[in-house]
Design goal:
The structure holds 2 protein chains of 2 kinds. Chain A has one domain. Helices cover about 60% and strands about 0% of the residues of chain A. Chain A is mostly helical. By secondary structure, chain B is mostly helical. Chain B has 18 helices and 3 strands. Classes of the chains: A mainly alpha, B mainly alpha. The interface between A and B is large, with 59 and 64 residues. Strand 1 of chain A pairs parallel with strand 2 of chain B.
C-alpha cells in the first residue's frame, strides 16, 4: 500500500522541526519569549531527537513510546547524515572531538524538552549553540521534505538494488584519501 | 560588472516573493482542474467525485492563505503539500466508466463497505503497471498534514470537505490489461486487507517493535561489529563511534521496514483468503506464476517471497483441499479446481524462499520478528472484521450454490442467482468461486479451450453476473413487491 499516512507523519515531523528551528533562532538572536505553540514544538523536537540519538539515552531512561520508537527508527539514519554534513559548522562552533559533540547534543535536547527552563545538569544555550541547534533541526526538516518530494526531480523509474549493501551510496564521514 | 552575492536575508526575500506568487497560481489551477473533473466525467460510483472535492476544497483554502497568512518559513511546506496532493487528481481521472470494469465496481464497493463502514469510499482505477495496489487513506493524511500547520483553520476545512459524511477515501488499482479479467480481481481482497491491517499497524506494530527493538539492535550491532572491514578508511575524529551507529541505524531501519512490510502483506493475504477463500489463492497463484518465486525482500521493495506468501495462504484453506467421502466433496464440477490448488500446495513444499531469507541478517531478523508475532497478530486482524464477514469463506461449505452457478456458466447464463425461483442473488464470493472452478474445469477437460473467445465469453458472463446480482441484492425486495402487485392486478 502506498501509505499516505506515513507521508503525512513525515510532513508533520518536518513542519514541527521547522517551527522549533525558527523558535530556536529567535533565542539565538535574543528576540522575545516563546509562545505556547513554540514551546510545544521545541519540546516535541527535543523528545524526538533524544529518541533518535543512542548516545544521549541512558539505561535508566523510561522506554520510548511505540509510535516515537518507530518514527525514530525511520529518521535515525537521516539524523546521522545531517550531523555528518554539518561537520564544518560543528568545528566552527569550537567542537573538535566526538565527546564535545555528544555533550552539546545532550545539552540541546535537555533545553528543547524544557524550553526556557534549564533542567538539572544542563547549561543555558549560548547564542552560537542555539543557532547551531536551529541549523540541525532545519537540516533534518529539509532532508525529510526532500525524501517526500524528491526536491522537484523525477524519481528514477527503476533502480537496481544490491541486497548485500543496503547502506551503499549514502553519505558516511570517511575522509577522502 | 560583478554584483555582490545575496546576503541570507536578501535571498530569503527573493525566495519568498516567487514562492508566494507561484504557489498561489498553482493552487488556483488545481482548484479549477479538480472542479472540472467533477462536472465533466462519468463515474461508476460517487467515490471519484468525493476525492476531487477533497482536493478542490483543500487547494482553495491553501490558495487563499498563501498570499499573505502563511509565514515565510512555511512556504516550503506548502510547496511540499501541493506537490503531494496534485497527483491525486489522476486517480479521479482514471476512474471514468470507460476505464474500469464498471459492472463489477458496485459489487466490490458494497463488499468493501461491509468490511469498513458506509462512510468509507473506494475509487477503483486501472494502472498501466502490472500490479494491484491500494493508496490511502486520503482524508486522514490531508487532515494530519494540515493540522501540523499552526495557522491553518482546520475546523473550517473539516466543514468544507464534509468530514461527517466522508470518513475516509481509498484508491484501489488493478492492471489495465486485466480490466475484464474479473477472476483476477479476487486480488482486491488483499488490497481491502490493507485497510484493516493499516489500523493494526497504527495501533499495534509500534508497540511490538518497541518491545523487541533492543534485542534486535543487539543482534545487528554484533553482526555489524563482527563484519566491519579490517582496513576501514580514516574516519573524521568528530564521528568515530557515530559512524558505527550510523551503519547500525541503517540496518535497523531496513530490518524494521522488511518486518513491517512483510507482516502487512502476509496479513492482507490472510484477510483475502478469509473473505474470498480459494479464489484469492487462485488469483495469487496465477499472478505469482509470472514472476520469480524466491526473491529476497531486499530486492523486491520489502515484499515477502511469493512462495512464502502462497504457503501461508494455502495453510488457511486446508479443509477445502481435502476429500470428504461422507459429503462427496468435491463434486465433479469443482474437482479440477481443487486438483489445481493441490498442485499449488506442492509448489510450497520447496523451501528455497526460506533459504533466501536466512542468508541476510536483515531479512533473518525481520522474519524472526514476524514468526514470533504471526499467530497472535493474524487472529487480532481477523477479529477486526464486522460480524457479517467474521466467518471464513470455505468452498466446501458453499459447494452446492457454487455448483449451481457453474452449471449456469456451462449453459452460457450469467451466474447471478442461485436458483431462479428462490430469488436469492449469488454473493460476490460465490460468483468468483464458480468462475475459477469453471475455468479450471474447462482447462482440464477441453484441451482446445483457452482462446480469446473462450475467455471473453467467461469474463462477460461473470461481469454480467456480478452486475445482476448487485441490482438484485439492492433492489430485489422492491422488484418482488412490484411483481406481486402485478400478479394481483391480473384478472
Amino acid at each position: 500500500m502506498e501509505d499516505l499516512g506515513l507521508i503525512a507523519e513525515l510532513f508533520k515531523t518536518s513542519s514541527t522541526l521547522v517551527r522549533a528551528a525558527a523558535s530556536l533562532e529567535k533565542l539565538g538572536n535574543r528576540k522575545g519569549e516563546f509562545d505556547p505553540s513554540e514551546k510545544e514544538a521545541l519540546s516535541w523536537s527535543g523528545k524526538f531527537l533524544l529518541a533518535m540519538d543512542w548516545n544521549a539515552q541512558k539505561p535508566s531512561d523510561p522506554p520510548v513510546s511505540g509510535g516515537l520508537a518507530l518514527q525514530a527508527t525511520s529518521v535515525r539514519p537521516t539524523f546521522y547524515s545531517c550531523l555528518f554534513r554539518m561537520a564544518p559548522q560543528i568545528r566552527s562552533a569550537g567542537m573538535q572531538s566526538e565527546k564535545e559533540l555528544i555533550s552539546f547534543l545532550i545539552n540541546l535536547y535537555k533545553y528543547l524538552i524544557s524550553p526556557g527552563m534549564p533542567s538539572k545538569g544542563s547549561k543555558e544555550l549560548s547564542s552560537e549553540n542555539s543557532k547551531l541547534g536551529a541549523s540541525l533541526l532545519r537540516e533534518i526538516a529539509e532532508s525529510i521534505l526532500v525524501q517526500i518530494n524528491n526536491n522537484g526531480l523525477p524519481r528514477p523509474f527503476t533502480t537496481l538494488k544490491d541486497e548485500w549493501k543496503p547502506t551503499a551510496n549514502e553519505l558516511t564521514p570517511f575522509l577522502a584519501f | 560588472m560583478n554584483s555582490p552575492p545575496f546576503s541570507p536575508s536578501e535571498e530569503g526575500i527573493w525566495n519568498e516573493q516567487i514562492r508566494r506568487r507561484e504557489l498561489h497560481r498553482c493552487a488556483e489551477t488545481l482548484v479549477g482542474l479538480a472542479e472540472n473533473v467533477q462536472l465533466a466525467e462519468d463515474f461508476a460510483s460517487e467515490a471519484p467525485k468525493i476525492l476531487a472535492k477533497l482536493i478542490a476544497e483543500t487547494a482553495k483554502m491553501l490558495a487563499d492563505l498563501v498570499k499573505e497568512i502563511v509565514p515565510a518559513q512555511d512556504l516550503g511546506q506548502i510547496n511540499a503539500l501541493l506537490v503531494f496532493i496534485t497527483p491525486h487528481l489522476r486517480y479521479v481521472e482514471r476512474a471514468r466508466v470507460s476505464q474500469t470494469p464498471w459492472s463489477i465496481v458496485p459489487s466490490a464497493e458494497q463488499l468493501f463497505k461491509l468490511g469498513t463502514n458506509s462512510k468509507c469510499h473506494f475509487v477503483i482505477r486501472p494502472s498501466w503497471a502490472y500490479n494491484y495496489s491500494i493508496i490511502g487513506e486520503f482524508v486522514g493524511a490531508y487532515q494530519n498534514c494540515l493540522s501540523a500547520l499552526s495557522w491553518f483553520p482546520i475546523a473550517e476545512w473539516k466543514e468544507k470537505v464534509d468530514l461527517k459524511n466522508c470518513a475516509s477515501i481509498y484508491c484501489i488499482s488493478f492492471p489495465r490489461i486485466e480490466r475484464s479479467n474479473c477472476l483476477l480481481h479476487a486480488n482486491w481482497g488483499h488490497e481491502f486487507g490493507h485497510i484493516l491491517v493499516g489500523k493494526w499497524v497504527i495501533d499495534e506494530f509500534a508497540k511490538a517493535w518497541a518491545s523487541d527493538e533492543a534485542a534486535i539492535k543487539k543482534q545487528i550491532e554484533d553482526h555489524v561489529k563482527k563484519n566491519l572491514p579490517r582496513n576501514l578508511p580514516p574516519v573524521d575524529s568528530l564521528f568515530r563511534e557515530m559512524v558505527i551507529q550510523d551503519i547500525v541505524a541503517k540496518e535497523m531501519r531496513a530490518t524494521m521496514e522488511v518486518a513491517q512490510q512483510g507482516l502487512v502483506e502476509l496479513l492482507c493475504d490472510r484477510v483475502s483468503v478469509h473473505i474470498f477463500g480459494p479464489s484469492a489463492i487462485a488469483a495469487s497463484l496465477e499472478f505469482a506464476a509470472r514472476f520469480v518465486l524466491d526473491v529476497s525482500p531486499l530486492q523486491s521493495s520489502n515484499y515477502p517471497p511469493w512462495r512464502y506468501r502462497l504457503r501461508k495462504m494455502l495453510q488457511r484453506c486446508k479443509s477445502d483441499l481435502l476429500e470428504n467421502r461422507d459429503t462427496g466433496y468435491p463434486k465433479p464440477e469443482i474437482n479440477a479446481f481443487i486438483e489445481w490448488l493441490r498442485i499449488g500446495q506442492r509448489l510450497t513444499e520447496a523451501k528455497r524462499d526460506l533459504e533466501v531469507i536466512e542468508l541476510h541478517s536483515t531479512t533473518k531478523e525481520a522474519y524472526n520478528f514476524i514468526d514470533k508475532h504471526w499467530e497472535e497478530v493474524a487472529e487480532k486482524v481477523i477479529s477486526m472484521l464486522p460480524p457479517e464477514l467474521s466467518k471464513p469463506y470455505l468452498l466446501c461449505e458453499h459447494e452446492k450454490a457454487v455448483v449451481e452457478l457453474i452449471k449456469r456458466l456451462q449453459r452460457g447464463i450469467p451466474p447471478n442467482e442461485i436458483s431462479h425461483l428462490s430469488r436469492e442473488p449469488a454473493s460476490f464470493q460465490e460468483i468468483m468461486s464458480s468462475a475459477w472452478a469453471y475455468k479450471m474445469g474447462q482447462i482440464a477437460n477441453k484441451p482446445s479451450w483457452g482462446g480469446a473467445d473462450d475467455f471473453g465469453l467467461l469474463f462477460r458472463l461473470v461481469l454480467k453476473g456480478c452486475e445482476n446480482s448487485f441490482v438484485h441484492s439492492k433492489w430485489g425486495k422492491e422488484i418482488a413487491k412490484i411483481d406481486e402487485h402485478t400478479v394481483q392486478e391480473k384478472p
